[in-house]
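#struct-help
A.M.: can someone run this one for me? Single chain, 377 residues.
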Amino acid sequence: MTKPRIVYLVTEDWVFVSHRLPIARAARDAGYDVMVATRVADHGAQIEAEGFDLMPLAWARRSLNPFAELAALMRLVGLYRRLRPDIVHHVAVKPALVGSLAAWLAGVPRVVNAITGLGFVFSSTSTRARLLRPIVRAGFRFLLRRPGSVIIVQNPDDADVLVRECEIERGRIRLIRGSGVDLTRFQAVPERESRPVSATLASRMIWDKGIGDLVEAARILKRDGANVRVILAGKPDPDNPASIPERQLRAWHDEGVVSWRGFVSDMPALWAESHIAVLPSFYGEGVPKCLIEAAACGRPIVAADGPGLREIVRDGENGVLVPAHDPAALASAIARLAAEDGIRRRMGAAGRALAESGFGDRRVAEETLAVYRETAD
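D.P.: on it. Structure tokens below:
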């Protein structure tokens, strides 16, 4: 018998490696022939080394050019017709829309759409978001309700939005919290005794992550004499309209208000150096992987009170939730944790227990494979 064939459609190769590799490995080990369709930059060789067939795509993640989008759609239709997959797994909003349309035109029988956060389209008040929102709603209503289609969301808030605004039947939606982390790689380690206390934000350097609010909070902490160092770990995302220019990040660093590290490959070492994890994001997150990693490493978290963030931060247990767009509240929460060693350690232990209870990559992979099996019934 031939192996069932699955295609993962992901915007960028680094996203696949960072967030979907354990799931694809589990599918391979379960007997699937795994193929990956993505824009290839730096991780193509790593994907192929896993034994996966790599299908490079030429598409722009944030493009709104209708001719370019039509060309990308037709290439994807041709790819699906040629590969004849038994199931396709689309990751994020754009692949879900374009991929589902291509799957319909190519006659793919089973479609899994993983919505990793509804993002700025449903939460922003910008002109761009207001223009895109009705298009995305209409696309979801038509494409995500087709026979053989199942939707995975990472938090209940996104499920409610899909039901309320896109008229998706709740029975089509499955909740899998996050992409999972390797709990053996991300171990809980005692925090370093060195001072100052380090409060770290690890993400792409985009405004929507609340980085501007954190910089203002860092200024407040510095003004008040708090012995806290704020670290930014990550690089700009030029394809994102909310990307923070590198010159701005360097200016903050040179000013001494924050320490900008750029891209960090050794995340366990970063969290071992840090005392507190921070993410005051104000747009629709799924469940941020950086915070799952921080929790697994036994670090307390300060985050904005929003969708996805509430899944990994239990206010008062393993961290503190603060209002979005409130640098003063953010600074106050960081200062409190910086001053209280015992609270940090208690919250860090609770975070590790929470990560072990449902955020390990093996559990996420098992739950995803269960969705695949369900679509075959």
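A.M.: thanks! The mean pLDDT is 94.
D.P.: also worth noting: The radius of gyration is 21 Å.
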